[in-house]
Specification:
The chain is built from ten helices and five strands. The chain has helices at 7-18, 22-31, 38-50, 56-70, 75-83, 100-108, 156-171, 176-185, 191-199, 203-227, and strands at 94-96, 116-119, 125-127, 147-150, 230-232.
Amino acid sequence: MTEAWTDHALKTLRAACRTADGPSLLALLRTHHPAGVLQQCGDALAAAVFRGVPGARETSMVCTSALRKRRWPGDELLAEQLDTAGSGAVRGLRPLPVDLEELSGLLEGDAAWGGGRMGLDTGECRPALADAEEPWDEDEPDGTERWLHVPCAGSRDAYRDMEDFITTVDDHDHDHDLARSLGIALQGPGAFRRCKDMLATSPAQLWRYRLFAAERQYGRARAWLADQGYRSAPPGDH
């Protein structure tokens, strides 16, 4: 029987992913259902398969099946990466140690700051705010680092995420009253704040929304990265 993801478990998972700690990652995925964190743990899992960590191949097959069944943005890309065991053969994409959460923050953050830039050697993500006083040209090198402009798409996709999440509240959890209230709250200015305030009255649903939104955001960041010719990889695996 698997356990529900908690804040502590998720922090432990992300720490294992940052350090590419395959055994710790697999221990978590054995005791918690991987469906809620597929995009968040996918790169580290691929690295574990590549390194031959016991049990990694079997876990990756379960995750690949779930990704192809779900079919959210970025899911097929990650499934291919798991299929090739982190060999770097995914559509000829170059590996880059970029943090997908940070990249997503540039892509979907405050549109007023216009995204930012990503280092093509280190994977560093720098928000536009950090460059506000020192404009830069992506065609000119900054020291030894090469950079790629990251545009900001604003909150349009996040709005769709909330719409889709509300559907799961109605269809899967059968909480029709909450789903109806969230649908009303999502209309007009300040919709996200109203929806989050409403979700806060149901901690279990708020937590489920956070996992749902994170998976969508990671997947979109992965898809954008692939369009630029790159794939994310844990440090030391590029």
